[in-house]
Amino acid sequence: MSIPLLNIQDLVVGLKNSIIINHASLDVSENEIVALVGESGSGKSMIARAIMGLFPSPLIFRHSGSIFFQKQPLHTYTERQLRKIRGHGIAYIPQSPLNALNPIMSIGRQIIESQLTNHSKARERALFLLHRVGFSDPELTMKSLPYQLSGGMRQRVLIAIALMNSPKLLIADEPTTALDVTLQAEILSLLQDLKEEYGLGILFITHDLGIVARSADRVVILQSGKTIESGNADAIFYHPQLPYTQLLIKSLDYQTAMVESTL
Amino acid sequence: MKHSVKLKFGIALLSLLLLTFIFGTLFCPYHPHATVLAEKNSPPSLIHWFGTDELGRDLFARTLQGMRISLTIGSLAACIDLLFGTIWGSISGLSSKRIDSTMMRIAELIYSLPYLLVVILASVFLGKGLVPLITAMICIGWIQMARIIRLLVREALCAEYVLAARALGVPNLRLFRTHILPNIIGPMLAACMLAIPHAIFTEAFLSFLGIGIQPPNASLGSLVGDAIPAMRFYSWRLIFPAGAITALIFSITLISDGLRDIYDPKQRISDGGLL
Predict the structure, then answer these.
(1) B167 shares contact with chain A (CB less than 8 Å)
(2) Where on the phi/psi map is residue A43: left (φ > 0), alpha (ψ -120 to 50), or beta?
(3) B169 to chain A: which residues are within 8 Å by CB?
(4) Beta bridge partners of A231
(5) pLDDT at A41
(6) A201-223: per-residue pLDDT in tens?
(7) Residue A193 has pLDDT above 70, yes or no
């Protein structure tokens, strides 16, 4: 197996005397969707934040463990070095599309924002990407303000923004939670297409096993800050090893059963 | 932008006052300092619209001068407050916890000084008049603004679009300029508008006490102060300047209230809808 795009080893993150991420390890390779699954509060988003070095509070910091991105030791990087990685090597799709766009800035300006160099080139790329993520009239979209777009459209804009600097790794932090089911499916298939098109590694953070079953190549299960099980999606679904994973999958079966019985 | 009756009414009243002020200054034939002792204490008439004072000076001209001074002080003090407040507040809001709390404790220390004491001390050291008065008011006034702006910056920092921008590698200064500042400018202006009537009132109050604007210059406060001893016989000398202060402060307060209604959604919910 080749060297993974992202490699996290024994990551421990927390406050001074309370641990949030407790020995988490995971790999993401190129052209692969890895789903990070866990219940709420298990530290899924914290891992994403830790990769980018953007902790929600200065009181939370990395205790030990390593994060390698394309063999670069991110855990030793300074803020200045990390800023070069953010957006360029690793892009982030935020959790709620409704809040993640600056409400008073046009979509166009927000898309181009991450590119300081050639303005017309950036504009061209923005138009191309907006078209790629499914806007039929990118010129018009560039001019509109976030409130003029629906939730699904905003999520597409966020994906386009994330792709602006051709990142290698995409961290999608519950990108479908705020969307309804049909939109979820659309966004998922968009992400899958993009993965194949650009050979992206995608770290897909979610609590929804149904989504995972449909799109992920590999699954990592997180329980109270600890990665307890990982493996191919099929293996995890059909032969879960740990009782916790079995319970998770059972709860999914229960949900589907409920839906089917009501239909 | 949502419509607010308060805002509209405030703007209408203020425009009316400003129009009166501009046309009055253009067409009033009397100098505010010119005394005509033969016409002293004459009641309002077609010749002297607001009457005259105990030295025969035209009260309309003096009220206009008072309004000019009040407006100057009000807007200058509020703008400088806003400037200092923005600088201090945003540095504090963006800094680490230790710097932030040090800066805020310093501000609170200054804020704890008694206002009148500071103003009186300033007038002792700087002399009396417009500039010392404004300086003294800014000494303490900027702190309120700094606290508001620090809070706004802190709140904006938590917004998801700020996190999203940081995740894209946007440098801090640009983050502040493009994402934070434009998003807090509305509440900032509302706070600034609220500082104007406060400054006008303070100036009137200090001039009333005799430590503000000095004769022969008139401010609305000093006119009221001069009129008090004679209010039972020459009530117009009290009514017109006092009415001018009231109308001025009322209109600007309405405007700032209306702005706050528009920019502060929490307030809007608790009020049960826009007025």
Answers:
(1) yes
(2) left
(3) 83-88, 114
(4) A219
(5) 81
(6) 999 898 877 777 778 888 888 88
(7) yes
Q: How far apart are CA B144 and CA B199, in angstroms?
A: 13
CA distance A89 to chain B (A): 10
Let me know: does A162 contact A170? Beta carbons within 8 Å: yes
Tell me the pLDDT band of B126, cut-offs 50, 70 and 90. Answer: confident
Q: What are the backbone angles phi and psi of residue A106, rounded to the nearest 5°?
A: -70, 155
- Exposure string for A99-118, b = 16+ CB within 10 A, e = fewer: bbbbeebbbbebbbbbbeee
Q: Count the neighbouring beta carbons within 10 Å of the beta carbon of residue B223.
A: 27
Chain A residues touching B159 at Cβ < 8 A: 99
Does A107 contact B at CB distance below 8 Å? no
Beta-bridge partner residues of B258: none
Interval A239-262 mean pLDDT? 75
Of A88, A102, A105, the CB nearest to B169: A88
d(CA B135, CA B231): 32
Residues of B in contact with A86 (CB under 8 A): 166-169
Q: Does B168 touch chain A (CB under 8 A)?
A: yes
Q: Under an 8 A CB cutoff, do A100 and B161 touch? A: yes
User: Is the CB of A102 less than 8 angstroms away from the CB of B168?
Assistant: no
> How far is the C-alpha of A218 from the C-alpha of A35, rounded, in Å?
6
Helices (H), B53-210: 59-94, 97-111, 115-126, 130-158, 160-167, 172-175, 181-209
For residue A126, report the phi and psi dihedrals to the nearest 5 degrees. -60, -45
Structure tokens given for B83: 């400037």
Contact B182 A105 (CB under 8 A): yes
Q: Rounded to two decimals, what is the model's pTM?
A: 0.74
Q: Which residue of A has its CA nearest to B180?
A: A102
Does the pLDDT at position B111 exceed 80?
yes
DSSP letter at B214 equals P
ipTM reported for the complex, 2 dp: 0.73
Residue B267: count other Cβ atoms within 10 Å of its Cβ: 12
Residue B273 has pLDDT above 50, yes or no: no
Amino acid at B58: D
How many CB atoms neighbour CB A247 within 10 A? 11
